[in-house]
Amino acid sequence: MTVRYPRPLRPGDRIGVTSPSSGVSKELGKRLDAAIRHVEARGYEVVVGACMDGTGHVSASAAARAAELTEMLTDPGIRAVVPPWGGETAIDLLPLLDWGRLRDAEPTWLVGYSDMSTLMTPLTLLTGVATLHGNNLMDTPYRAPEGLLTWLDIAAAPQGRPFTQVPPGRHRSSGWDDWELRPDISEFSLDTPGTWTRLDGDGDVDVEGRLIGGCIETVCNAAGTPYLDVPAFAREHAPEGLIVYVESCGDGALSICRYLHGMRLAGFFERANAVLVGRTSAPDAASLTQHEAVMDALGSLNVPIIADVECGHVPPYLPLVNGARGRVVHTGTRSEIIQTLD
Questions:
Q1: Counting beta carbons within 10 angstroms of the beta carbon of residue 229, is it exposed (0 to 12), middle (13 to 18) or buried (19 or more)?
Q2: What are φ and ψ of residue 62, in 5° steps?
Q3: Helix H segments across the chain?
Q4: Are the C-beta atoms of 228 and 266 separated by less than 8 Å?
Q5: Ramachandran angles phi, psi of 215, nearest 5°
Q6: Which of 179, 87, 184 is nearest to 143 (CA)?
Q7: CA 218, CA 40: separation in Å to the nearest integer?
Q8: b or e along 200-223 (b: 16 or more beta carbons within 10 Å of the residue's beta carbon)?
Q9: Which of 291, 301, 232, 233 is nearest to 269 (CA)?
Q10: What is the pLDDT of residue 143?
Q11: The pLDDT of residue 122
């Protein structure tokens, strides 16, 4: 079977906003409004759901969040669903989502990263529908630096036409913008040079496979369950193999090492032709760096492992489509990822 892609966004399409994990506090309401205006300026209608409360760590009960997400993803009038951001416990939705309805519905873009990986990666694995790991809504007003695309660019891209992204060579070293003070900010502060790093050895890399992955700290908790059966997805949709990407939000190197070992034992990397690792600002341990943690857990795969890719929590953001056909090139003079929605 082939991966199914939502049709490209067109002006006038409706985009749903809901918080399957954490909602938005009143203090950041102006940033939410600015992000919605940005999407509307691109020609789309924005529909905001009821599950948006930011007073606690989740926006509503698990049942309410699951119902609203299912309704938006199966509403033929909504062409994309994007959360304000991630959170902590989206995993409580997994047994409550109506997977049959989601599988039978016309594909709709589900967008996000961080805790949204807990839902997007299973959605692709269980239904064969592509999902878009990239920016969340609150990040959407930022202009992408040269070489990168935004989720809105990719969701509107024609199917079957390859698109290429290259590292811009700079990233943000630490900290976050104060959205309460500057709700309309749209320029990244990229203050540190840096590019991709091959961890497993030297030599050029040119590898292809279907893309799948997500945030280590969140998806590791579903590894080994029916919701995260990567080998089954590869057998059905990717006989050519996978390009698996992972990224660390903020946990220390020792924890990341344990999580990755567990994910490997559960088969998450079983059909990987290469592994991409997002750049992280998470702390090293005294005896183990974040890079060493990756190699400790995944070095035995004997595939190219490329770190410091812009697919994580460190701005800027390089969106990746779960299920897309990908090609990764990394040499001494060239680094790029080409994705094709076919």
A1: buried
A2: -60, -40
A3: 29-41, 62-74, 99-104, 117-127, 151-155, 216-219, 230-237, 253-265, 290-298
A4: yes
A5: -80, 125
A6: 184
A7: 31
A8: beeeebebbbbbbbbbbbbbbbbb
A9: 301
A10: 97
A11: 98
Low-confidence ranges of the chain (pLDDT < 50): none
Q: For residue 294, what pLDDT is reported?
A: 98
**DSSP code per residue over 147-207:** T---HHHHHTSPTT--EEE---SEE--S----TTT-TT-------EE---EE-S-SS-EEE
Tokens 């692709």 belong to residue: 124
- Partnered with residue 325 across adjacent β-strands are 210, 340
What is residue 82's three-state secondary structure? strand
What angle do the packed helices 230-237 and 117-127 form, to 10 degrees?
40
Which positions ≥6 away from 159 have C-beta within 8 Å? 5, 7, 8, 341, 342
Q: How far apart, in whole angstroms, are the C-alpha atoms of residue 290 and residue 255?
A: 10
- Report the residue count for the chain: 342
Supply the pTM of this predicted model: 0.97
Give the C-alpha separation, 69 to 11, whole Å. 23
The DSSP bridge pattern shows strands 242-247 and 205-215 to be parallel
Rounded CA-CA distance 133/193 in Å is 24
Q: Is the distance from CB of 305 to CB of 207 less than 8 angstroms?
A: no
Residues 6+ apart with CB under 8 A from 245: 133, 211, 212, 213, 214, 275, 276, 277, 278, 309, 311, 320
User: Hey, is 83 helix, strand or coil?
Assistant: coil
Q: Are 159 and 4 in contact (CB under 8 A)?
A: no
Q: Which amino acid is at 84?
A: P
Q: How far is CA 219 from the centre of its chain?
A: 11
